[in-house]
């Protein structure tokens, strides 16, 4: 994650290039949320049960097809072909299941349908099937949306100030250290966040997404945390029964490795949406909701933008209007760009380069020299 910065999306069909670093404006924007909303066609805010289910059905058909081919044909392949076929299955199935994860995420935002009970039922089933505690994550993620860009109250990928870096940070500030950090982040980052709040907001005591009485949740939310835990335990028990019936190798190959791919993608997507050399963070003296919501960046994942239901390249619009269905987000993004102007952030750098650059450039945040009372913090990398 290295040299580069912010640029606007060109109007030509040519793929955008990443040129020079340019910080996002951090002053209060000259437009309001209602003015942004008026620029968006009204139909973009309409949720359709049939259309939402159609995307879920499409994902299920592809996932079932990949499963059928892998379990019925791969065992008969020569070893050399099998060694190629299984990694292809893991990658493709992992991508499709990431799309399923995104639909569950929409349920948590009440963007799937007009019926909260339906959104929660679908979200609980989908997220539990991917070993995610649905209500637990729904509530912590909602607080992330309410506090994006705040150094004190944001929930996840909260950057540290230089004084808050651990002693080992300087030992990882090299190519090998960055490679190890990225590897750990993509493989263990998601379960560590859920279980131990790693990379999450600091609390005054131990925080865990599986603990109904943890500091993340309020009293009125605790019963639903139990329901989330029950959903994950039910799927874990089903996997246990599958291991007894099919063997641990079969379960790992068919389900386990694609799940690792899902976890890696969702960590990468979230990290790259909120980590960029041009993005500011704010302390309580400067933060407000609008500037925090605009301190995000749209990314280009190529064909995976569609596979991931455009959560990757419409994230700015999603933070402004999180109940908007994903199938309207591209139209909305196009509509709000003229209003947002320089406040709209897009980075077309290939994500495999971007994650390396951000790991290199975005180690901690500090105010600019001479501006230590402004409460606006920027990413630095000098240790």
Structure commentary:
This protein is mainly alpha-helical. It has one domain (33-380). Helices cover 52% and strands 4% of the residues. It has helices at residues 33-39, 49-73, 79-108, 116-129, 134-146, 175-196, 222-246, 248-274, 289-293, 304-307, 315-320, 329-340, 351-361, and strands spanning 281-282, 298-299, 346-347, 364-366, 376-380. The chain has a 3-stranded antiparallel beta sheet, with no helix packed on it. Strands 2-3 form a two-stranded parallel sheet. Helix 3 (79-108) packs across helix 8 and helix 4 (116-129) packs parallel to helix 7. The longest helix has 30 residues, at 79-108. The relative contact order is 0.17.
Task: Supply the number of structural domains.
Answer: 1
Whole-angstrom Rg: 21 Å
Strand arrangement within the widest β-sheet reads 1-5-4
**Helix tally?**
13
Cα distance, first to last residue? 16 Å
- Strand composition percent: under 5%
Helix percent band: 40-55%
In round numbers, the mean pLDDT is: 93
Bulk shape: globular
Number of strands: 5
């Amino acid at each position: 994650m290295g040299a580069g910065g912010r640029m606007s999306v060109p109007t030509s069909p040519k793929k955008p290039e990443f040129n020079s670093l340019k910080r996002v404006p951090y002053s209060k924007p000259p437009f309001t949320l209602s003015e942004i909303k008026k620029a968006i066609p009204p139909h973009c805010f309409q949720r359709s049960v049939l259309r939402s289910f159609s995307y879920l059905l499409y994902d299920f058909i592809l996932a079932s097809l990949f499963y059928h081919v892998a379990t019925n044909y791969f065992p008969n392949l020569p070893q050399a072909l099998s060694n190629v076929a299984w990694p292809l299955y893991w990658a493709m199935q992992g991508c499709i299941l990431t799309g399923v994860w995104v639909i569950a995420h929409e349920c948590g935002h009440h963007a799937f349908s007009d019926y909260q009970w339906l959104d929660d039922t679908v979200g609980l089933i989908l997220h539990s099937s991917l070993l995610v505690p649905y209500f637990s994550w729904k509530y912590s993620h909602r607080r992330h949306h309410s506090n994006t860009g705040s150094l004190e109250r944001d929930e996840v990928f909260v950057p540290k100030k230089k004084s808050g870096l651990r002693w080992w940070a300087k030992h990882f500030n090299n190519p090998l250290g960055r490679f190890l950090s990225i590897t750990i982040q993509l493989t263990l980052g998601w379960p560590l966040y859920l279980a131990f709040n790693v990379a999450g907001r600091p609390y005054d005591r131990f925080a865990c997404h599986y603990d109904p009485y943890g500091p993340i949740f309020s009293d009125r939310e605790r019963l639903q945390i139990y329901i989330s835990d029950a959903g994950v335990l039910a799927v874990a028990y089903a996997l246990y029964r599958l291991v007894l019936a099919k063997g641990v190798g079969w379960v790992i190959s068919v389900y386990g490795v694609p799940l690792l791919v899902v976890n890696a993608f969702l960590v990468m997507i979230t990290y790259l949406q909120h980590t960029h050399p041009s993005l500011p963070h704010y302390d309580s003296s400067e933060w407000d909701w609008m500037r925090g919501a605009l301190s995000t960046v749209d990314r280009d994942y190529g064909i995976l933008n569609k596979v991931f239901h455009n959560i990757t390249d419409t994230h700015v619009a999603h933070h402004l209007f999180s109940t908007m269905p994903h199938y309207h987000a591209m139209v909305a993004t196009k509509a709000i760009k003229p209003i947002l102007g320089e406040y709209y952030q897009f980075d077309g750098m290939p994500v495999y380069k971007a994650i390396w650059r951000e790991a290199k450039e975005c180690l901690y945040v500090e105010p600019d020299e001479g501006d230590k009372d402004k409460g606006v913090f920027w990413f630095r990398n000098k240790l």
